[in-house]
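ok trying this again, last paste got cut off
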Amino acid sequence: AASAGVPLYRYLHQREQYSLPIPTVNVLNGGAHAANALDFQEFMLVPVGAPTMAEGVRWCAETFHALKRLLKEGGHVTSLGDEAGYAPNLTTAEQALDLLMRSIERAGLRPGADMALAMDPATSEM
């Protein structure tokens, strides 16, 4: 912008296509951030199919609430870990991933197409 002699907002406006990044939302905690047996530190939602940032955030919120209902139905606690995700007493990453897949479906979304999953193994803590 400076070398073109125009304000930054005008320089950016000349670009052809803009998009906001896709958020990753932490919904399940383990590892050092929770008092449970999960090895992985964070399990996150990624709304890859959302048409807008706002819709993606809404999808994550709906899936987060669906996860809470599933946890309660399964007799799990719904307390939060240090990173604000639920910290149920799960023992394996497979259990966590299964819960997340069912939460996505319960929210009316398609796993993989609408909502993807991401994990932070926090290998520095292992």
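PB: full thing came through this time. The first strand starts at residue 25 and ends at 29.
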